[in-house]
Amino acid sequence: MSMADQTAVILLSGGLDSVTLLALARSEGYQCHTLSFAYGQRHTAELAAAANLSTQYGAKSHRVVPIDLGSIGGSALTDHSLSVPVDGVTDQIPITYVPARNTIFLAYALAVCEVLEAQALFVGVNAVDYSGYPDCRPEFIAAFQTLANLATKAGVEGHGVEVKTPLIALSKAEIIKLGVGLGVDYSQTVSCYSADEQGRACGLCDSCRLRKQGFAQAGLVDPTRYQA
Amino acid sequence: MSMADQTAVILLSGGLDSVTLLALARSEGYQCHTLSFAYGQRHTAELAAAANLSTQYGAKSHRVVPIDLGSIGGSALTDHSLSVPVDGVTDQIPITYVPARNTIFLAYALAVCEVLEAQALFVGVNAVDYSGYPDCRPEFIAAFQTLANLATKAGVEGHGVEVKTPLIALSKAEIIKLGVGLGVDYSQTVSCYSADEQGRACGLCDSCRLRKQGFAQAGLVDPTRYQA
């Protein structure tokens, strides 16, 4: 079976990493179906970017699954009574950590893979600049692959989905260089935790700092649109 | 720490198994928080039963998380254009299988455990009368325990949640005997895939057949309220 006959589900937040992931999967010839989550983000610019980029990169379908993380609580990204830290990246698990978020996202993605009979699930996790999230580590992904093989009809029948994380060992600079090589226009991606309605970045949150540093280390002009 | 200081999250569908589970966790002294899902079930009698039983068994809180499995599609339980089979239990994975359903449920439960800092997560899966679902098997639960230890802040800090499945090796008859011993009134639980608005069972679906057989094998009168 050629790659053109292979179906992939791509977790697409609309940020830098996941757009690079979509471009990569398309360059490998996969039929791509993108999946985004409306989980009570502080802004919807990221979701608008995901929809636009899905069309631009020829995704076969784009799903937005509403998930109610807000009712679970406990994170600055979904609980608007907590403040997003702007003082720089630390070694601690940050307050922007959403409890079990990637586990929930991957569980839904697995369901979509099963319905579409997809061979691959592309996840843009990154263990280098992972900002202290436990569910971005390689051992978490390996455990999810084991679970996926056991959880599904396809897995039981021996043709389960392969969880692919091609960005996991890359630095932000390497991801950016990969994407630029694939023709990605990063001015259209939104990484900021506090982007405004137009998708312009704050420049101060952890995500902005890691992205800014990535462009600097890649030796490339940062095309991010910043506020003020 | 005594059990009275321990917090447990209980996955509570409102059916026979999960109510037995709640009664068991309470009898062990846990502070219990119940969690149900509104996932486009054909009827809501099961959710009403879960809410009533949470109150009756002294749960500290009861959450209903709406999840949009219907948009994913592919199961007779959520896709109303497919028919629920009434011809008896077979060896095949049945059409009532919801893609990755237990994975999604457990992922949300893990998030709630993390927010509540729970020590235990009680899941009423059963590998004996498991009706062909891949995500009710012991190896699936073991894989989820591994994932949970890696996925969460609590797990990383070494005090992760223990996934408890005390019903997994019991027959339906043994579960019923356990529950009756704990004082459970099974007339208030709803197991049927096609229950009516009053929670009365069809008597013909896989779930009804397994339940009916359970009472017969336990040598107990079946208190289930049947339609017509």
Automatic annotation (TrEMBL), chains A, B:
Catalytic activity, as annotated: 7-carboxy-7-carbaguanine + NH4(+) + 2 ATP = 7-cyano-7-carbaguanine + 2 AMP + 2 diphosphate + 2 H(+)
InterPro entries per record: QueC, Rossmann-like_a/b/a_fold
Pathway: Purine metabolism; 7-cyano-7-deazaguanine biosynthesis
GO MF annotation list: ATP binding; ligase activity, forming carbon-nitrogen bonds; zinc ion binding
Gene3D superfamilies found in the cross-reference section: HUPs
Free-text remark on how the cofactor is bound: Binds 1 zinc ion per subunit.
Binding residues annotated for ATP, in chain numbering: L12, S13, G14, G15, L16, D17, S18, V19, T20, L21, L22
Signal peptide limits: none
Enzyme class, first EC level, given as a word: ligase
The entry's keywords: ATP-binding, Ligase, Metal-binding, Nucleotide-binding, Queuosine biosynthesis, Zinc
GO biological process: tRNA queuosine(34) biosynthetic process
Cofactor: Zn(2+)
Binding site for Zn(2+): C192, C202, C205, C208
HAMAP family membership: QueC
Family: Belongs to the QueC family.
Stated role: Catalyzes the ATP-dependent conversion of 7-carboxy-7-deazaguanine (CDG) to 7-cyano-7-deazaguanine (preQ(0)).
Protein name from the UniProt record: 7-cyano-7-deazaguanine synthase
Organism for this UniProt entry: Thiomicrospira aerophila AL3
